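To illustrate the input format used throughout this study, we show a single complete record. The first block contains the structure-token representation of the backbone; no residue identities are included at this stage. The design step must infer an amino acid for every position from geometry alone.
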């Protein structure tokens, strides 16, 4: 795409595999050795999926949703030299509060990991008298200090923007209900201090395309580009055999991210491979993180597969943005500022 640029430099050593000869639909392809994390990845953990990674000290580090063998999800720290082979800490992440007292959520799942101004933030879903968003910060991946729960229950799929906008932290989230929510739109909220959140705006809703007609939710941290914020999210379809989770793409306005500039009518990726179609929950592709390299426009997308595995997919960011623009079906309700 003429003039397209990734704004954040990223890293050139991100995992990568060239495009295979044939790619159907969107210009995105799976790693041929998927899944990169299989069953029983570490002692006491049956499955790892829906997890997030960042570059760290020349290598990679991440927060992983580990379903323990008692069935309860928690967050584990993982490290990797190449972003593909991961080793995990034996113990759950030992969160603490501001006073240094241990803090253990009842459960913790679908973590995102975002660096804003030299601090790494983990954002996840936890019990707060119902499913809500939990949050912690770290600078060294040794000490993890809890910050205030940003939102009231019920809420899921929260992810921070990687930089402040107009001086405020910005967070996407998906308000929901107490169950396995059969509805939900993406909203953005802002905060000067990560304690008080407000100026809530609607970003975008479920849509007429069947793959995202039931509910949607934020995925990876928005990626800053010369065209706007590139958002990789998930969209859900209902079928007689349950929900199907696909990966979608949109581009949000750079200064007013509640305004959607483009939104792809086609999914970017949908369950097709055995590790996406078969597992604890079949037919789930659930993106939680990307790595990028501004020099080459390469993107590596980490996604949970069938609530059982972690998969990797690749794309060139400029081609992906072009595809989203070409197939955009953005509607009035998505384009508006999002307040009523
Ligand atoms: C959603 C979340 C995800 C999960 C998906 C499919 O509601 O709980 O963690 O991957 O359902 O089971």
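Output of the design step:
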């Amino acid at each position: 795409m003429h003039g397209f640029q990734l704004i954040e430099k990223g890293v050139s050593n991100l995992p990568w595999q060239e495009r295979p000869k044939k790619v159907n639909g969107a210009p995105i392809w799976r790693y041929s050795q998927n899944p990169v994390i299989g069953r029983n990845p570490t002692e006491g953990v049956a499955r790892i999926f829906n997890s997030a990674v960042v570059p760290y000290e020349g290598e990679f580090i991440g927060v992983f949703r580990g379903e323990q063998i008692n069935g309860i999800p928690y967050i584990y720290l993982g490290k990797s030299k190449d972003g593909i082979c991961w080793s995990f800490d034996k113990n759950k992440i030992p969160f603490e509060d501001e006073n240094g007292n241990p803090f253990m959520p009842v459960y913790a799942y679908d973590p995102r990991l975002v660096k804003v101004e030299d601090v790494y933030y983990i954002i996840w879903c936890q019990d707060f008298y119902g499913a809500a968003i939990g949050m912690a910060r770290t600078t060294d991946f040794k000490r993890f200090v809890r910050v205030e729960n940003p939102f009231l229950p019920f809420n899921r799929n929260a992810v921070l923007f990687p930089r402040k906008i107009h001086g405020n932290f910005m967070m996407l989230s998906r308000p929901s209900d107490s169950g396995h929510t059969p509805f939900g739109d993406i909203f953005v909220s802002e905060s000067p201090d990560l304690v008080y959140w407000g100026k809530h705006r609607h970003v975008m809703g479920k849509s007429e395309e069947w793959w995202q007609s039931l509910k949607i939710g934020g995925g990876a941290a928005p990626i800053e580009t010369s065209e706007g914020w590139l958002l990789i999210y998930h969209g859900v379809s209902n079928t007689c055999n349950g929900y199907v989770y696909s990966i979608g793409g949109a581009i949000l306005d750079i200064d007013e991210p509640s305004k959607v500039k483009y939104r792809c009518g086609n999914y970017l990726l949908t369950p097709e491979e055995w590790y996406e179609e078969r597992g604890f929950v079949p037919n789930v592709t659930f993106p939680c993180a990307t790595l990028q390299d501004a020099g080459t426009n390469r993107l590596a997308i980490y996604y949970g597969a069938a609530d059982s595995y972690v998969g990797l997919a690749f794309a060139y960011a400029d081609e992906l943005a072009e595809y989203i623009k070409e197939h955009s079906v953005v509607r009035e309700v998505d384009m508006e500022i999002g307040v009523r």
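Structural context for interpreting the output: Residues 317-326 form the longest helix (10 residues). The chain has three helices and 22 strands.
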